[in-house]
């Protein structure tokens, strides 16, 4: 089932994939000793000293239990996606334009894409990571789509009845956090790292804050659980193979949800944003 959503945002420019900038959406997996931007990771010596083992480079938590409506157990799955390069539209002064027409999310699982066989400095091929925050429920009144009544809501148990906020909560200005679970009213600051790893809520994508990152062959990416993202976009000359790791329980609406963006939302790939020599 694809839900139509309207597109309020102007074009979005791609920026290089960086762990800090991507942190609200998930993890960038890269070797801290060969990248300028270093995620805060610990390492130990391994393999008789011939290897450095970086610990916990990403998280793979199963959030189905107690959260998905069917109660169906999920198992870990590893698939391979062989992604062909996408056609770009042309525009003066930029390499090209990719119109994002579909966003999807996996409400109860992170999903890790690991490119294999794509060189760090491959000047012919790279990939885009396109993500959007989740709107709090109830913020889509202007949209023709009422999420609470949409087919996507059938993945989630009914939300608890709305209660009046206490004076303390009102004074603290608490509001649902778009990067975590909308059902949980929080009164504490939302920066704690553990909250970032919780599933995003059931709201629609916040298209006004969509982000697009350009990734190199020596970077893998984990979309946090429930993070809205575009289906993988490879740019350049040849297909890229990705090993993809996630949980799934076989119930369509609980494993993957999609929305279709009216008219598409343009991502601009500017000449300076990529080391691609290939003609896009
Ligand atoms: N991200 C992507 O390309 N596709 C998926 O998330 C999928 O599960 O189909």
Automatic annotation (TrEMBL):
UniProt key word Lyase: yes
Catalytic activity: (S)-ureidoglycolate = urea + glyoxylate
GO terms for biological process, alphabetical: allantoin catabolic process; purine nucleobase metabolic process
Keywords: Lyase, Purine metabolism
Molecular function per GO: ureidoglycolate hydrolase activity; ureidoglycolate lyase activity
Region described as Disordered: 139-185
Superkingdom classification of source: Eukaryota
InterPro entries according to UniProt: RmlC_Cupin_sf, UAH_cupin, Ureidogly_lyase, Ureidoglycolate_lyase_dom_sf
Gene3D superfamilies linked to this entry: Ureidoglycolate hydrolase (2.60.120.480)
Pfam family, one: Ureidogly_lyase
Keyword Lyase: yes
Quaternary structure, from the entry: Homodimer.
Name of this chain's protein: Ureidoglycolate hydrolase
Organism: Acrodontium crateriforme
Organism phylogeny: Eukaryota, Fungi, Dikarya, Ascomycota, Pezizomycotina
């Amino acid at each position: 089932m694809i839900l139509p959503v309207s597109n309020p945002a102007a074009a979005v420019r791609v920026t290089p994939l960086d762990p800090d900038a991507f942190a609200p959406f998930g993890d960038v997996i890269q070797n801290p000793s060969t990248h300028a931007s270093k995620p805060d990771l610990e390492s130990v010596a391994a393999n008789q000293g011939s290897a450095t083992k970086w610990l916990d480079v990403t998280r793979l938590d199963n959030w189905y239990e107690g959260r998905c409506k069917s109660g169906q157990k999920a198992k870990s799955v590893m698939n391979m996606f062989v992604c062909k390069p996408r056609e770009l539209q042309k525009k003066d002064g930029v390499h090209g334009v990719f119109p994002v027409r579909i966003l999807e999310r996996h409400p109860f699982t992170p999903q890790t894409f690991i490119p294999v066989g794509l060189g760090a400095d491959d000047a012919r091929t790279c990939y885009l990571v396109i993500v959007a925050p989740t709107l709090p429920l109830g913020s889509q009144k202007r949209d023709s789509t009422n999420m609470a009544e949409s087919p996507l809501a059938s993945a989630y148990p009914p939300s608890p009845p709305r209660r009046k906020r206490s004076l303390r909560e009102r004074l603290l200005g608490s509001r649902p956090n778009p990067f975590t679970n909308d059902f949980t009213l929080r009164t504490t600051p939302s920066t704690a790292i553990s909250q970032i790893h919780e599933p995003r809520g059931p709201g629609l994508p916040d298209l006004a804050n969509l982000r697009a990152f350009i990734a190199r062959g020596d970077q893998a990416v984990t979309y946090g659980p429930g993070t809205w993202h575009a289906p993988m976009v490879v740019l350049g000359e040849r297909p890229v193979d990705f090993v993809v790791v996630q949980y799934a329980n076989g119930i369509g609406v609980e494993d993957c949800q999609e929305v279709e963006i009216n008219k598409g939302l343009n991502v601009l790939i500017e000449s300076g944003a990529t080391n691609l020599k290939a003609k896009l």
